Amino acid sequence: MAAPQLLARKRRLKSQFLARSKRPRGAGRQLEAGMRGILITCNMNERKCVGEAYSLLGEYGDLLYGPEQLPEPAERLSGSDREEEEQEEEEDDAEAALKKEVGQIRASTERRLRRFQSVESGANNVVFIRTQGIEPENLVHHILKDIHTTKKKKTRVILRMLPISGTCKAFLEDMKKYTETFFEPWFKAPNKSTFQIVYKARNNSHMNREEVIKELAGIVGSLNPENKVDLNNPQYTVVVEIIKNVCCLSVVRDYVLFRKYNLQEVVKSNKEDMKQNPSNVSEEQNSTAVKPETVEENLKEVKQEQE
Q: Assuming Cys at both sites, which of 68, 106, 214, 235 could form a disulfide with 287, CB separation 3.0 to 4.6 Å?
C-alpha cells in the first residue's frame, strides 16, 4: 500500500476511534427513554434469566414472526472492508488496535439490530430485553396464553414478564405529555374501556405513586369520558414501571387471568381458569370474563407495595 493511502487510512480509523471514545459509557446498552422491549423480573440469577429470556422469546418470536434474518459474515463487509482484511498483515500495531475498535463498533451496531438484545435495567433482579421489529404486548400475551393453556412450565428463574410498549423520562410532566398520545389506541373515543393502573418504582424516590396514578387516570378519562376505572375486572391494565429516571409503560389484557403476568403462577391449575378464555390477540376490544378480585384484596396489595 502506498504511503499516502496508508496515512489516510490511519487518519480515518483514528477519527472513528475518537468518535467512539466520546460516546457515553454504556450508551445503547442501558435502559433509556425511547426504548421498547420486555421487562423481566427474576429470583436472584440475572445471568440465567437472560439466557432463559433469549430461549423463550426466540422460540415464540420465530413462531409469530418467522426466523430472524441476519446477514452472513461475508455480506457484512463492504468491498473496502474486505480489502482492509487482506491488507491486515501490512498494518503496524497501532493501526491494528484502531481497526479492532472499528470492528467493535460494527459488532455493536449489529447487536442493536437484533430482534432481542439485553440491556442494563438499572435495578437488581430486573432484566430488560430491547426488541426490534415486533410488538412486545402481542408477543408476551401469546406466550402467557400458551403457557396458561398447556400448563407447561418453561422457565425456572423468570418470574414476571411485562411487555413495555413505550418509555419516557420519569418526571410527571414528561409522563403526562407522553401518555396523551400513547394511550390513544386503547382509550381515545370512540374506543371505550374499563381499566386499572398498577404502579411500581425501583431506585426512584422523587415520584409520588398516588399523584402519578391520579394524573394518568385523568388523561385516560380526557380521551373518552366513558372510560371507567374498574379494580375488579378491567378490560385493560395500565402498567407503570419506573426504574431510576426511566418510566416504562404498557397497556395489557388478561392481567388478572395471567396472574399479573407471572410465568410461575400461570402454570398452576385453577378450576376457575377452566371457565375462562383469554382474549384473542387480534380482538383488542374484547374483554375477558375473569373471576374478579375484591376491592379489599386490591387495597391490601397496594398497602404491601407501599411498605
A: 235
How many angstroms separate the Cα of 290 from the Cα of each of 40, 146, 228? 24, 17, 18
Annotate 129-151 with DSSP letters as a single string.
EEESSS-HHHHHHHHHHHHHHH-
Which residue type is seen at 70? L
Is 137:143 a contact under the CB 8 Å cutoff? no
CA distance 263 to 257: 12
Query: Which tops the pLDDT comparison, 285 or 65?
Result: 65
User: Across the strands, what pairs with 42?
Assistant: 158
Amino acid at 126: V
In angstroms, rounded to a whole number, what is the distance separating the alpha carbons of residues 88 and 182? 50
Quote the CA–CA distance of 244 and 205 in Å, as a whole number: 8
Give the C-alpha distances (Å, rounded to integers) separating 85 from 13, 26, 108: 14, 28, 19
Cα radius of gyration rounded to whole Å, the chain: 23
- Give the global pTM: 0.70
- Spatial CB neighbours of 57, under 8 Å, sequence gap ≥ 6: 38, 115, 116, 129, 139, 143
Question: Which amino acid is located at 124 in the chain?
Answer: N
Q: pLDDT per residue over 13-56, tens digit each?
A: 656 555 544 444 444 589 999 999 999 999 888 999 999 999 99
| CA proximity to 128, closest of 173, 95, 93, 167 | 167
